[in-house]
Design brief:
Blueprint (H helix, E strand, L loop, with lengths): L1 E5 L4 H17 L2 E7 L8 H19 L5 E6 L5 H11 L4 E5 L5 H7 L2 H8 L4 E4 L1
Parallel strand pairs: 1-2, 1-4, 2-3, 4-5
Helix pairs in contact: 3-5
Length: 130
C-alpha cells in the first residue's frame, strides 16, 4: 500500500502526518511526504530551506516508528492540489492524507481550496484531517 501526505509543515499537515503514520504502521504501507512549491522566482531561498528542513523532520518522525517513507519537494509550476493529484496518478498512490481548514466562500473564490481540488480530482480515496 502507498500513502501520500500533502505536507506543508503546519499544525494541520502534522495532524495528517500523524494519522498517516499510524495507518502506515497498521497496514505496513510506504509513505510519500510531498511538499509543493510554485517554483521559479516565486520562492525565496529561506522558504526553500525551511521546506527542506520541514520535510527532513517529517521523515524522521516517520522513521522513529519504523515507517518506510520518501520525501519530495516539487516545484513544477503547478498548484499544490495539481501537484498532489499528478503525483498520486504517477506513483500508484492508494490513499491521500491532507489537512483542511475552514475558509469562507470569499476566501475559496479568491484563494481556491487545495483540499477541495484534491478531494474532487484524486484517483484514490482522500482522508481530510482537521
Amino acid at each position: 500500500m502507498n500513502i501520500l501526505v500533502g505536507y506543508s509543515g503546519t499544525d494541520l499537515s502534522n495532524k495528517a502526518l500523524s494519522l498517516a503514520r499510524e495507518h502506515a504502521r497498521i497496514f505496513n504501507a510506504r509513505v510519500f511526504i510531498l511538499t509543493s512549491m510554485e517554483g521559479g522566482s516565486g520562492e525565496k531561498l529561506n522558504e526553500i530551506e525551511r521546506s527542506e528542513k520541514s520535510l527532513s523532520d517529517a521523515r524522521q518522525f516517520m522513521e522513529e516508528q519504523g515507517v518506510t517513507c520518501e520525501t519530495h519537494q516539487l516545484a513544477r509550476g503547478m498548484s499544490p492540489g495539481e501537484d498532489i493529484v499528478k503525483f498520486a496518478q504517477d506513483n500508484d498512490i492508494d490513499l491521500i492524507y491532507v489537512g483542511i481548514k475552514k475558509k469562507s466562500k470569499t476566501q475559496k473564490i479568491i484563494l481556491g481550496s487545495t483540499a477541495q481540488y484534491i478531494i474532487l480530482k484524486a484517483p484514490c480515496p482522500v482522508v481530510a484531517v482537521k
